[in-house]
């Protein structure tokens, strides 16, 4: 099955699918576009104007990241989702929860004052504290084997890791298991290879462009 | 299986699950909360603070509306999702697309000027034009039998129908098949019974509270 992902280099959502594909050693092509100046063929393909889009076998097209990642999992056995409907539903719910945490990271970056920065940071920490008790004794979300929740959360932890280099985002939060989970995910080869080598520089550039409190305190040269 | 949906009366997302449950003649309980003043037990249940939440068998809890609706479909055969992975993925993608259209309706209601109203209205019409060619000769999304895409879009059409009583939202759009689909959905008993009897009044109240251009032109008494 020919698979082509259309993405842009900073997209954390397509990264989920790249992790799944690398984990399963499934060949695929990835085409990066400039989301701020998308080509006409992309506008034709994507009803929402968003990435990722997945081209399947050259003619079929899928959109919406969670949908794409689950489709990829469906057609490349063994499935990373649990067989039990209730467990599978809970995994899907935590994946959606991870998407809302990704949006919170944008709020942190865009916060314009120290107070707003602290509020958005704490809002994310309170959310991470909701997933902490879901984690067990294994290295990853549901034991030691990678599941789709891991693929969904690794891009989030990668961005928190970059942000954490200059600000301690986890201050005052009780997140021992989340931190261990993040470390285990970021050590995986399929996670490390799921982004372009210049991700860190692109991410710093994006943060600077948003011009928030984080950029002022963390990225600008000390005076 | 004991199923209890936690919702609030205006929520279009829980309505999707109610349609699925009514369609399958599956008994369930629904508990309405005031989302603006949620009880403590709800904050404990919902990691995101959002409705719907589904309690399963009294002790298990699911959150995220698309996840809940798919779980309900999974455990109450026959499944309303296609068996073919690619078709199923496309159905899921159009469900997500429907969610983004629901958010567009809020933008229409909240638009503060005639220009903003027209822009948000046209944005939604352009999106509906993307789903128009997906519709075939059948009454519903994928023929004459209800599928989860139908359950997901019916709440959207119900709200467009209420808004359309005083403003023609479809002006200038080529949406013959979408309009036929909407009519067919709104005529279904499981759709009509999926909301509280006072939905229209509650919806008008919400629109008035948002205080946008639509409320000024459509709801206030003529002078």
Most extensive protein-chain contact, per-chain counts: A-B, 27 and 27 residues
- Summed over residues and divided by their number, the pLDDT of chain A gives a mean of 94
The unreliable regions of chain A are: none
Q: What is the element string of chain A, with H for helices and E for strands? A: EHEHEEHHHHHHHH
The percent range for strand residues of chain A is 5-15%
Q: Multimeric state of these chains?
A: homodimer
Overall SS class of chain A: alpha+beta
Q: Can you tell me the overall shape of chain A?
A: globular
Radius of gyration of chain A: 18 Å
The number of helical runs of chain A is: 10
**Strand order within the widest sheet of chain A?**
2-1-3-4
For the report, how would you describe the main beta sheet of chain A?
4 strands, mixed
Helix content of chain A: 55-70%
Q: How far do the termini of chain A sit from each other?
A: 55 Å
Number of strands of chain A: 4
